[in-house]
Design a protein that fits this description.
8 strands
Length: 143
């Protein structure tokens, strides 16, 4: 699932602001049937068509990206072990959650905007004290 390819809306003083760039996202990639794995310490490669895909297996999130932080190489699956209890699909911001303080890192450092695929990036969400998912802006990656 490409979380960056979701339409987003924000309530402002003058009404709802809707940002929808989904027309530029292309077809939704499918997650592999089994987790991509590293061979000899090297991340498994992924296809350009899979850029931006985030797939969760158990408590591990895999994201297809050409970069992590400021390290860019080839398209590969980056992985992050998440806290126990994180949903297997990234929740929509503002949707309800049951565990305030739960932080779910869907490879936030796999953050890149490659040409021709403008909405490809990792994501991190937190279950807020009021019981809704919010974007976690506390995580800093080397850029």
């Amino acid at each position: 699932m490409r979380v960056g390819c979701r339409a987003q809306s924000t309530c402002t003083d003058s009404g709802w602001f809707i940002y929808d760039d989904t027309a530029n996202c292309g077809p939704e990639p499918k997650c592999p049937g089994t987790p991509p794995f590293a061979v000899g310490g090297v991340n498994a490669t992924c296809l350009a068509a899979d850029l931006g895909a985030t797939c969760v297996y158990g408590e591990t999130a895999y994201s297809c990206a050409p970069c992590t932080g400021d390290l860019c190489t080839k398209n590969q699956w980056f992985k992050t072990v998440m806290q126990s209890g994180c949903p297997t699909k990234e929740p929509n911001l503002g949707s309800t959650c049951e565990t305030p303080g739960l932080l779910c890192n869907y490879n936030v450092c796999a953050d890149v905007v490659p040409e021709g695929n403008p909405q490809v990036f990792g994501w991190e969400e937190e279950c807020s004290s009021n019981g809704t998912w919010v974007y976690d802006q506390q995580n800093f990656c080397i850029r």
